[in-house]
Amino acid sequence: MKRFLFTILFAAIGCATETAPVSAKNPVVVITTSMGTIKVELFEDQSPITVKNFLSYVDDKFYDGTIFHRVMGKENADEDFMVQGGGFTEDHKEKKTKGPIKNESANGVSNKRGTLAMARTSAPDSASAQFFINVKDNDFLDGSARRAGYAVFGKVIEGQDVVDKIKAVKTGSKRFSTPGGDASFQNVPVEDVVIKSIRRAE
C-alpha cells in the first residue's frame, strides 16, 4: 500500500487562489529538523479542520522522530516538486494515525512555493497526518468547488532556506514497513532527514 504517494495528477485550473497573508492571530509552529529549523504559519480561518487535525498531532508529539520520506527537487528528480513527511519513523515504519479528515482544498489557497498541504491517496477525504511543503508553485494541485485537490493549510514564514537544503539531498530507493507489508519506495533521502519535533511557537 502506497498511502503517501500522489496517485492522481491534475491539470492546471484557473481558479482564483492566493497564499493567505500573515495574521497575528494565526497559530505558528516550529519544525525542528536534522537540517535546521522551519517556522510555519497555519491558516486557521481558511483550513479549520485541517489545522485542528494537524495541531492535534503536534500536541501529541506524533511527529517527533519521523522523517521526510519523499523528496523531489531538481537534484534528485526531473523537476522541483515538494518534500513530504510526517508518516514514517527513522526505522522506516509507518506510524498509526487517527482517522482521515475532510478535504479542504476548495479553500481558495493555492499550492504556491513554501506552502504546506496535506498528503493523501486518490480518495479526496483520505488525509490524516502526512504533509508536504511545496518547493515551487504547484497550482495544478489546487482544488475547486467541482474537483478535489490537495488542501493547503499553512506556509513557511522562516526557514525556506532549510526547505531548499532538504529538497537538494541525494535520494534513492528504500524499503518501508506498512500495514500492507514491506515495499520499496523511490525518492527517499539516502541519509534520513529527521523531524526532531514540531511544537507550537511560544
Describe the protein's topology.
Layout: E1 28-33, E2 36-42, H1 48-59, E3 66-72, E4 82-89, E5 115-118, E6 131-134, E7 152-158, H2 160-167, E8 171-178, E9 181-189, E10 194-200
Question: What does the model show?
Answer:
This protein is mostly beta strands and 202 residues long. The protein has a single domain (28-200), classed as Beta Barrel (Cyclophilin). Helix content is 10%, strand content 33%. It has two helices and ten strands; from the N terminus they run ββαβββββαβββ. The protein has an eight-stranded antiparallel barrel with strand order 1-2-7-5-6-4-3-10. A two-stranded antiparallel sheet has the order 8-9. It is globular and about 40 Å long.
Distance between the termini: 38 Å
| Helical run tally | 2
Q: Beta-strand percentage? A: 25-35%
How many domains, in number, for the residues?
1
What is the count of β-strands? 10
What's the average pLDDT? Answer: 90
Structural class: mainly beta
The backbone outline, from C-alpha atoms, is globular
The topology string of helices and strands comes to: EEHEEEEEHEEE
Name of the level-1 CATH class: Mainly Beta
Helical content band? under 10%
Brief descriptors of the model:
single chain; 2 helices; Cyclophilin; 202 residues; two-stranded antiparallel sheet; disordered N terminus; eight-stranded antiparallel beta barrel; mainly beta
Q: Could you give a short description of this structure?
A:
Helix content is 10%, strand content 33%. The chain has helices at 48-59, 160-167; strands spanning 28-33, 36-42, 66-72, 82-89, 115-118, 131-134, 152-158, 171-178, 181-189, 194-200.
